[in-house]
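Submission sheet (multi-component)
Chains listed below:
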Amino acid sequence: MENLRNKIVLITGATAGIGEACAREFASAGSKLILAARRIDRLKALADQLKTPTLTIELDIRNRKAIETAISTLSKKWQEIDILVNNAGLGRGLDKLHEGNPSDWDEMIDTNIKGLLYISRAVTPGMVARGRGHIINIGSIAGHEVYPAGNVYCSTKHAVKAISKGLMIDLVNTPVRVSSIDPGLVETEFSDIRFHGDKERAKLTYQGYKPLEAKDIAEAVVWSASRPKHVQIAEMIVLPTAQAAAMVLHKE
Ligand code: NDP
Ligand code: 8X3
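Outcome: structure written.
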């Protein structure tokens, strides 16, 4: 098993949901954390609770220059990132394409695809040079299926699936591993954001069955990271027991 103690783990989108849960799980495993997101107050509050060295970075992953600066100016003790968890992402709106809002599309494409690419581009060369590293992308069941009104969000997660495979192919002659952890319905702030703050509608998404908790996905991420060096978890779909496919959900 890979010992995660003192490994440097960079997690994007650590202010809420799956990213925050990943921070807690890696901290429990003794890893050192670099946490990035836009809401710096939340990151600092989280860092105060974690009993491990933690660096917080206020970062909008849509901003390529800001990413390049943040990574290239890391102090010596934080430079050797062992694990990158590409978690930051969002769904915005749930509309038929011909009724959709292009600014919602821009936000999803810029965050889920371009942001993930920018940060991977900035961090992966160091991993290759050091001969060790692991990139763990948070994909989705929406990267395996397309559901009604999911057009653009599903496209972004299909892109994440392709990027994970492409990166794995590109890195096959190196010891650097690539994994995609692909959840179904997880109760987080995701639906609040998707429905532009309509909390009632967001709550309905998770009613009538037991959704996944963010911790369930964080445990899958940490488990993948802790496999022996020669084991690469390529892809893991994790669903609630009441969900059989993106749109096959048993509600009581
Ligand atoms: P949350 O809304 O709870 O958390 C999203 C996180 O992403 C926040 O920390 C947010 O931080 C961060 N984020 C969003 N935009 C940016 C940005 N431009 N720059 C930096 N950080 C950003 O959602 P989840 O935890 O559910 O989502 C995490 C990932 O899991 C996403 O990629 C999502 O697509 C995926 N996923 C979620 C599922 C679910 O059912 N919840 C299922 C399958 C996949 P801040 O706003 O502070 O910047
Ligand atoms: C988020 C889960 O099913 O709403 O990726 O697309 S779903």
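Remark: Residues 140-142, 184-185, 190, 246 surround 2-hydroxyethylsulfonic acid (ligand 2) (CB under 6 Å).
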